[in-house]
Amino acid sequence: MQSPFESILHTNHIPTEEQCKAIEDLLELPEKQLVEVDSKIAEVDLQLRELQNKRDSLEWVASPLRRAVKAHRAIISLARRLPDDIYQEIFLHCLPMGPYPTPNPLDAPIVLTHVCRRWRHIAHSTPRLWSRLHMDPLAIYYGNSEARSFPTREWIERAAAVPFSLSFYSTSTDFPRVSAILELCQGLTLSESIAPHWNNFAISFPSSEAIILEILALPYLQEATRNPFWNARSLVIAMECRHVGEDPSEILAKLDLKRNAQLRELTFVYNNYNRSLLHAFMPFLPCLQLEMLDLQDPGPNTTSRTFSRASLPPPMAYEFLKCCRNLVVFKMDACQFEPALDEIPPKRYGMDRLKELSISLFDLAEETDIAWASNFDFPALTCLHLRSRSMNATGSRSGTLTYVLRQVGHSLTSLVLDPGYLKQGRLITALEFLPSLVQLHIKSAYFANDFEENMEGDYNKEGKWTDEVLKRLTPQDDQDHPHACPRLQYLKWQYNTCFTEDALLKLLYQRSSHPSSPVPLKQVHIDFGRLPTNSGWEGGCRDLVEAGLDLRVTYLVPKVDPIYIEEKNLFYSTEELKDKARVELPIIEKSGYLDFGWE
């Protein structure tokens, strides 16, 4: 309130008699108002307590009333009035995005049938809801009661005329036991009235040739319209060989994939591509109709990074490509070149449709390991994934990387590079071969501190990817030295982040505003694998984020994970570390192909 005595308030001033009377007159009205307000509050408070007491006394009446209101509201609720076709679309969005649904009663679609009678009817009447099913052979073997329900036939019946995908495939490095996969295949026996429209079929065969042949002799696999190997557009077949040099011809002949005129995509996981079997596979494959051929071993995700059970000798890689010249996607593991054993025929071929090539090698040191590539032309190749299974710095050459990029780098728009140990200078050189690159995913097996703890001399200094790499990607005023990868829009970088946050900030801004930068970066994901060195730097690019840049960075967080706080991934055998478990990062991906933009 306004007061003429503001100047003496909160002071030690002694008022005169006149001032005292004036202050009394000034306070008379506001004090009266306060008394009136307090009186009204007390009155309302009394009324509220009386109403609460009355409600409590009538609870036996109010409770049924509320239940009646709730029941009537339920009748007119939007969920009750939604038509069945809307529910069908909602149910489809409940399915897992990546993996196939399983018979787990807590997951869709099974859980949707347990809500009410109407939902169960709608779910059973939605064929697309039942068009995919995964049955894990290892879950069968280890006695998982849910998996043993074998709902295969019911799912196929509910899928009706919708193309059906079924997986008896295990991603584990342990191949399924004989009893498990045999039970699953026998449980697939269908009545004469059921002829599924096969879309995809995946199976992990047991490591027994006799049992595989027994499975392939099942009656329904002799019928042209029901055998998934003869009708599916996409097949995933995993076979384990017990003995080196064991000939798979009898099994391949029984599979008889050439009878499948619809087959376009084949994933074939085999652990014994012996040099003696150079011509053992092609006679049994519908080579010219295949568009995708994946021969990579998924094992390095869970076992040794270095070892691949599915490595192709160079002449066999040449043979596969020569015979499958209509491929759009080809994925393989390559073994090291043996001069005394490996001879590449001189004839050249054109892979006119190949767009994606994924190669995993023991290391990227020798160009001879991929010498077969020079016998092919790849005019349409835009996506490349190169991975070294070795993390050792020995030799530290990168002949394979340079060899491949010189041949196809000019046309690449997407590159995933997981090189193990790679000198910084060689990485910079590699980036200069990529004028059309739009998407770059760089992965390293090393944390920043691995170089400090476990490497010496030049290996330490040359293996770090520092500001110099980002500088080469950053537009500069020097027109005589244009920056590398000028078309780059999507950058993902995992580990070996020995560069500074300031260098990253400069890269983002220069790519956004420099006259020599044709396009700005749209998406940048950095997994530093270390502690931050400049905690406030992200605020400096707030305007870029507001303008649309998808920027995501992750650091190690102190006291959250005591293992990773050490900032290193490699432990070498020493007395001090002999009892310490090695930390392996889950950074190895089977396929490097990604659509532009990761999320």
3D structure, described in words:
Keywords: Coiled coil. Residues 34-61 form a coiled coil. InterPro entries: F-box-like_dom_sf, LRR_dom_sf. The chain is built from 19 helices and 17 strands. The protein has helices at 17-57, 59-75, 78-81, 84-92, 117-124, 137-141, 152-159, 178-187, 209-216, 228-231, 249-255, 314-323, 399-408, 424-431, 448-454, 457-463, 467-473, 501-513, 542-546, and strands spanning 132-134, 164-168, 198-204, 234-239, 265-270, 292-294, 311-312, 329-334, 349-350, 356-361, 376-377, 383-388, 414-418, 439-443, 490-494, 523-527, 550-554. It is flat and about 120 Å long. The longest helix has 41 residues, at 17-57. The chain is α/β, with parallel strands linked by helices. It has a domain at 382-599. Helix 19 (542-546) links the parallel strand 16 and strand 17.
How many DSSP helices? 19
Average pLDDT number: 82
- The gyration radius over C-alpha positions equals 34 Å
Q: So what's the overall shape?
A: flat
What profile does the largest beta sheet have? Answer: 15 strands, parallel
What class would the helix/strand composition place it in?
A: alpha/beta
How far apart lie the N and C ends?
58 Å
Helix content: 25-40%
Uncertain runs are: 300-306, 561-599
Strand content: 5-15%
Strand element count:
17
Coiled coil: 34-61
Protein name: F-box domain-containing protein
Keywords: Coiled coil
InterPro entries: F-box-like_dom_sf, LRR_dom_sf
List the helices and strands and how they pair.
Layout: H1 17-57, H2 59-75, H3 78-81, H4 84-92, H5 117-124, E1 132-134, H6 137-141, H7 152-159, E2 164-168, H8 178-187, E3 198-204, H9 209-216, H10 228-231, E4 234-239, H11 249-255, E5 265-270, E6 292-294, E7 311-312, H12 314-323, E8 329-334, E9 349-350, E10 356-361, E11 376-377, E12 383-388, H13 399-408, E13 414-418, H14 424-431, E14 439-443, H15 448-454, H16 457-463, H17 467-473, E15 490-494, H18 501-513, E16 523-527, H19 542-546, E17 550-554
Parallel strand pairs: 1-2, 2-3, 3-4, 4-5, 5-6, 6-8, 7-8, 8-10, 9-11, 10-12, 12-13, 13-14, 14-15, 15-16, 16-17
